[in-house]
Design brief:
The strands form five sheets. Strands 5-8-9-10-14-11 form a six-stranded mixed β-sheet, covered by helices on one side. The longest helix has 23 residues, at 191-213. It is of the alpha+beta class. The protein has one domain: 4-Layer Sandwich (Deoxyribonuclease I, Chain A). 20% of the residues lie in helices and 30% in strands. A hairpin with a 2-residue loop joins β12 (266-268) and β13. 46% of the residues are buried.
Length: 334
């Protein structure tokens, strides 16, 4: 797994009713949770060596967790994001530790909501942290969808659930925005995982679609574990049905041609992919004659700064943060 860390920033100019733009970001913190913090330092998912197990006792884990948490906050502090969606983060207490670390570096996010994670295997959660007031609509994304676990055997139908996700509303400069923070299942596991991820995307689509149809502002963001144009992304956007689709902010037309090759958010064994996404409703850009008129993008390379690497075998994440900037001179009539 590559440890190269570069910030990918998508800057989108969208009217939102204030002179200052709204900046929304998503970032995979890579096991920023106490129970699995050793992974960030180059150790295995399960420690087997007796000496390693003894070394990584509760006290040492907490120490390394706080060290990593501070490194993440320090690395992201200069990006001036208003609302963050964090994936692969810890529970409420561990998310509060990141919130406090940001404040230490002069960036206060007083509002925090954390999902009710059903993923007991990794201990990971999804959290949304904001400068603007947040209200929890649901600490999970409920529902189920069915999928065929075996490619050639329709008699092995399984059920899928969204294990890590939440729905909050943000009051951003007087505009109510529905945010669905999601972490879909990984690609590790072949056909079963791929089909499960598509089923999870279906559940997310069902959750936000009534809001989209009623003209509400909707943003779906997080680690969706599929690249642009892949089935799960098409499903979650609504490309397969007759209703309106969410805008793919990482689409090539929104990025300067010089930055096309560096828009990836994750590098797995030399394969570069955009698997962290921010998908927005057309209501946020509907005032524009064309989306291109209000969307512009750029890349901010921060990989060479000293604070990204804290110790040998340690970087703040194996993902890059994705940021969307939204700006509006006058409020949109609702």
């Amino acid at each position: 797994m590559s440890r190269l860390f570069i910030t990918l920033s998508l800057l989108i100019a969208i009217p939102l009713g204030a002179s200052e733009p709204l900046r929304v970001g998503t970032f995979n913190c890579e096991f920023l949770n106490v129970s699995r913090i050793q992974i960030k330092y180059g150790y295995r998912f399960e420690l087997e060596d007796a000496n390693e197990i003894q070394k990584w006792d509760a006290s040492f884990r907490q120490q390394k967790f706080l060290e990593a948490t501070e490194a993440v906050a320090r690395s992201l502090s200069d990006l001036k994001v208003d609302i963050w969606c964090f994936t692969e983060i810890g529970n409420q207490t561990e998310s509060i530790a990141l919130q406090k670390a940001f404040k230490k570096f002069g960036h206060d996010f007083p509002f925090l909501k954390v999902c009710n994670s059903k993923d007991t295997f990794t201990g990971q959660y999804v959290a949304i942290m904001s400068r603007f007031p947040l209200e929890m609509v649901s600490d999970s994304i409920e529902g189920r969808a069915f999928y065929d676990a075996e490619m050639d055997d329709p008699y092995t139908e399984h059920e899928a659930f969204v294990q890590k996700g939440l729905h909050v509303t943000a009051d951003a400069n007087g505009q109510l925005i529905h945010l669905f923070g999601v972490h879909l299942t990984s690609e590790m596991g072949g056909h079963d995982k791929d089909e499960r991820r598509i089923a999870q995307a279906t559940i997310v689509r069902r959750a936000y679609l009534p809001l989209l149809q009623s003209g509400e502002h909707v943003i779906v963001l997080g680690d969706l574990n599929d690249d642009i144009g892949q089935p799960a992304i098409k499903r979650i956007r609504g490309r397969h049905d007759i209703f309106e689709a969410l805008i793919q902010t990482a689409d090539r037309r929104y990025i300067d041609s010089d930055d096309w090759s560096s828009r990836w958010t994750y590098n797995f064994r030399g394969e570069y992919n955009v698997i962290d996404h921010i998908l927005v409703s057309n209501s946020l850009v509907g005032h524009c004659p064309k989306n291109e008129d209000c969307i512009r993008t750029r890349v901010i390379p921060l990989w060479d700064t000293e604070h990204f690497k804290v110790r040998d075998h340690f970087t703040v994440s194996d993902h890059r943060p994705l940021i969307v900037e939204i700006q509006q001179s006058q409020p949109t009539d609702r």
